[in-house]
Amino acid sequence: MQYIIMLIIVLGMSVSDIVTGILKAHIVEGYQSKIMRKGLYSKFLNWSIMVTAIGFEIGMEFLGRYYQCEQLAMVAGAIPAVVVFLILVLMELISIAENFVIANPDAPLAKVILKRLKGVSGKIEKELSEDENSG
């Protein structure tokens, strides 16, 4: 059941991001099919990554039962699924906040929240790039 909940949350946030993006385009920039197509492909990529992470977790559970090490397999499967879930949720939150701030420039609280979210994602990106450079 937790897999369905995780997937529904990611799908719901993606739909919300798409809707806020369309509204933002309507209010501010106008529609650009190339940008909309790229965004939709990105959403499908995110969904497939989430489904893959969930499939990995389910597979690890069954493999753990087969080799009689259920606890280890459960943890090994849950970690990637939860990490992917959290990353996708953070990405969607940032994108939704960006759409809102661009469409609604008179929202100072939203700008503060967006800066915080981008600060968190910026730190993550910086750490990932440092890991790639050192490895």
In short:
This protein is mainly α and about 140 residues long.
Characterize the structure shown:
The protein has 135 residues and is an all-alpha fold. It contains 4 helices and no strands. The chain is elongated and about 60 Å long. The termini are far apart. The model has no long low-confidence stretch (mean pLDDT 82).
SS elements, strand count: 0
Parts with pLDDT < 50 across at least 5 consecutive residues: none
The ordered H/E elements are HHHH
Proportion of helical residues: over 70%
Strand content: under 5%
Topology of this protein?
Elements: H1 2-29, H2 33-66, H3 70-103, H4 108-134
Tags for this model:
135 residues, mainly alpha
